Amino acid sequence: MALLILTVLAIVECSATTYSVIIPIKQKGSGTLFRIQREGKWGYIDRSGNVIIAPHFDDASDFMCGLANVRIAEKWPYISVSGELAIGPQFDRPARGWTALSGEGSLGRHIKSGSA
User: Fold this and answer.
1) Residue ranges of the domains in the chain?
2) Taking the model in full, what pTM does it have?
3) Dist CA 88 CA 47 (whole Å)
4) Can you say whether the dihedral through the CA atoms of 73, 77, 81, 83 is positive or negative?
């Protein structure tokens, strides 16, 4: 894990853009993208340090099941790994972790019903 952290930080350090925060540790089972913060906004990079989703969210979580919970103003929509909105900004609070997406509670039922 320490090697991965150094690799990601070194690649970002060499680029023309610097980030104030890089989150190199993720939840077990989360996707391959890492959260970054620049000028107070959150986005995602891959393992090579390439920006995949430019920082423009007010807050962000790890990807689980191909979706990440992000904050836009006061709402928490879900985005796909391409950065597209997968579930619109209808949630007032973030749903964290596997439980939210696994079918427990209203969000899980929403996703399983195919309306996500």
Assistant:
1) 2-112
2) 0.66
3) 28
4) negative
